[in-house]
Design a protein that fits this description.
The complex is a heterodimer of chains A (328) and B (272). Chain A has 328 residues and is α/β, with parallel strands linked by helices. Helix content of chain A is 34%, strand content 29%. In chain B, 77% of the residues lie in helices and 0% in strands. Chain B has helices at 2-20, 22-30, 33-51, 63-80, 84-94, 97-101, 107-141, 147-172, 182-195, 206-215, 223-229, 235-270. Chain B is globular, with a radius of gyration of 20 Å. Classes of the chains: A alpha/beta (328), B mainly alpha (272).
């Protein structure tokens, strides 16, 4: 039985249109034109226990809105959702005891107090007995390497340190479902990696079900086997991460570095040119034609270096956002 | 009882938050000095020119009683002063409320326990300042503060804290509907301090406005505990005042719960 089940979930926001200028402002006092934005429209999916699912989408696609509905912070306009068998927005105590949400841009810690104080408060809030708490805290401290920082005022921590504390605070009660909204935003590479490793070991060790949004594809690539792509409030892809590029799998990216400038017409003549900037040209070439293509350019153009790569995930995602491909 | 543990933890967090802001609190006590000096000068002047003899009563207070009132009322107003309404408002506006909605703890209980915790930390210090002020007052004016008055004062002060918390809880929750609310907090605070007798006794407002102010809940937040301590309200009057104040507290509690229920419904419906 799925641990998260979402069926035709929708969320509209109403807002007011306002033209610029003083006269428009005055008109607005009397009559405002209400508009409706469909932040999430008719989204359906289900997630099994123990899955780590990447939830991808451009800004304003509806990722955060969906996570807010699933964690009970927001009421949907229509549709159904069940998390651990609960309707999240009823915010039953049993439900709240078993989930957690971390939002990268919103702190759950008290900035003026050391993180340990917030942890202690969470211990009381989640009714943990001291032994369980000590053990859970010990694990997380070990995992994040934050022992020396526990007594430091939260606002004196770096962004990366603070985010580790945020996640640790959210995990003390061993939630069965964890929603992570941009947990690595603004973090340096080392901190990003530390966060990813934690999420992975959490999932492997505790079997926690994780739903994760991120702008950084490397987060998703490292952690998730499955991705759900959302664009303009609707799901455009739901399946294996590897499937995103399925429609592009018959292609390779060939990059050339020239030793001297080459005129554009000459480069374009080979077909499949994606970009030409200075001495660097990028081509998309059919997998079967790569050998032949390489041989020709090496023989006919002043090539200093040639690399052959897979089409990056971004390319497949961008195509899905544009509504091309996506046959999963 | 696990729920008690949560609010005990919030209480203790309140104590520590207050200690983090101890410099801020110290300055607010120092800030009490200047209004006391100004008022002392004002009343000295009024009592002198009003009748030529400082022994006569103005607004039902002798000169010494008035000074006692002004000093005690000033300290009481510092002690019951809130500030959490700004936190409530910022929780609502910036989405900090989310963290409470997803956790198994009540926001009202959390805020109240936190407020009580921070007030208990301030109270220890302010109690010492108040004791010193009373010692000075009794040395200079011969006023005496009996044990019964002090006990009554403690009860009245607890009620005052509760009432002030509830008043500003209701005001703070308006943040669910209003976006720019800082000015409203200041306006309410000024009106509340005046209407509660925090600046001068309510009798100063004369026979037209005075009785109205006496009937409102505000007077129980400053004037009532002050007069209990100064020995002007005792016995049956004290009991009646505590009873009426408690009724107001019950009414405000109900009002607060209604506003909260409507506000959260809107918050969850509109999103932050």
């Amino acid at each position: 039985m799925p641990i998260i089940e979402v069926s035709r979930l929708s969320r509209d926001f109403s807002y007011y249109e306002k033209a610029e200028g003083l006269s428009a402002s005055l008109r607005n006092l009397v009559r405002r034109k209400a508009l409706v934005r469909h932040a999430v429209s008719g989204v359906s999916f289900s997630i099994e226990k123990g899955e780590v699912v990447g939830f991808l989408g451009p800004n304003g696609a509806g990722k955060t809105t969906t996570l807010k509905m699933l964690s009970g912070i927001m009421h949907p306009s229509s549709g159904e959702a069940r998390v651990l068998g609960f309707a999240p927005w009823q915010r039953k105590k049993d439900f709240r005891m078993r989930i957690s949400i971390v939002m990268g841009q919103r702190s759950q810690l008290w900035p003026d107090l050391p993180a340990l104080e917030s942890f202690n408060l969470n211990r009381a809030i989640y009714e943990l007995d001291r032994r369980d708490y000590e053990r859970s805290l010990g694990e997380l401290v070990e995992l994040f390497g934050i022992r020396d920082l526990l007594q430091v005022q939260v606002r004196r921590l770096s962004l990366g340190e603070r985010m580790k504390m945020e996640i640790a605070a959210a995990l003390l009660h061993r939630p069965e479902v964890l929603f992570l909204d941009e947990p690595t935003i603004g973090l340096d590479l080392l901190s990003q990696r530390a966060i990813r490793e934690t999420v992975r070991s959490l999932n492997e060790g505790r079997g926690t079900t994780v739903m994760l949004t991120s702008h950084y594809l490397s987060d998703i690539e490292e952690l998730c086997e499955r991705a759900i792509l959302i664009n303009r409030g609707a799901i455009v892809y739901d399946g294996e991460l590897a499937g995103i590029n399925a429609s592009l799998a018959d292609r390779k990216v060939v990059k050339l570095q020239f030793s001297e400038p080459v005129v554009r017409e000459k480069v374009e003549a080979y077909g499949g040119l994606r970009s030409l900037e200075g001495l660097e040209a990028t081509f998309h070439v059919d997998r079967s034609a790569v050998r032949d293509f390489s041989r020709r350019v090496l023989g006919e153009l002043p090539v200093a270096d040639l690399t052959i790569e897979e089409v990056p995930l971004e390319e497949g995602i961008a195509r899905l956002y544009r509504g091309e491909g996506g046959d999963a | 009882m696990p729920d008690r543990g949560k609010y005990a933890a919030a209480f203790s967090l309140g104590i520590r938050s207050a200690l983090e802001y101890r410099a801020n609190f110290l300055f607010s006590i120092l800030g009490a000095v200047s209004p006391v000096v100004i008022q002392t000068a004002l009343w000295t002047c009024l009592y002198d020119t009003g009748s030529g003899a400082s022994g006569d009563a103005l607004f039902g207070y002798s000169y010494r009683q008035m000074l006692g009132y002004v000093i005690v009322a000033n300290l009481v107003s510092r002690l019951v002063r809130t500030g959490f309404e700004y936190d409530v408002n910022s929780d609502i506006r910036s989405g900090g409320l989310d963290r409470f909605l997803v956790k198994p703890i009540g926001y009202f209980g959390f805020r109240m326990a936190h407020f009580a915790g921070s007030k208990s930390a301030e109270g220890v210090f302010l109690g010492a300042v108040l004791a010193a002020a009373l010692a000075v007052l009794s040395a200079f004016s011969g006023a005496s503060f009996g044990a019964a008055a002090i006990l009554g004062f403690v009860a009245a002060l607890a009620l005052a804290l509760l009432l002030n918390f509830l008043i500003f809880w209701c005001v703070g929750l308006l943040g669910f509907w209003l976006t720019e609310i800082g000015f409203l907090f200041e306006a309410v605070r000024i009106v509340a301090i005046t209407a509660s007798g925090g600046i001068f006794p309510l009798t100063v407002f004369g026979p037209a406005l005075g009785p109205i102010l006496q009937a409102l809940p505000f007077r129980y937040t400053i004037q009532f505990p002050t007069e209990v301590l100064c020995g002007r309200v005792a016995g049956a009057d004290l009991a009646r005042g505590l009873g009426l104040g408690a009724l107001w507290a019950a009414a405000l509690l109900a009002l607060g719960q209604a506003i909260w229920a409507a506000g959260v419904k809107r918050f969850v419906a509109v999103g932050s």
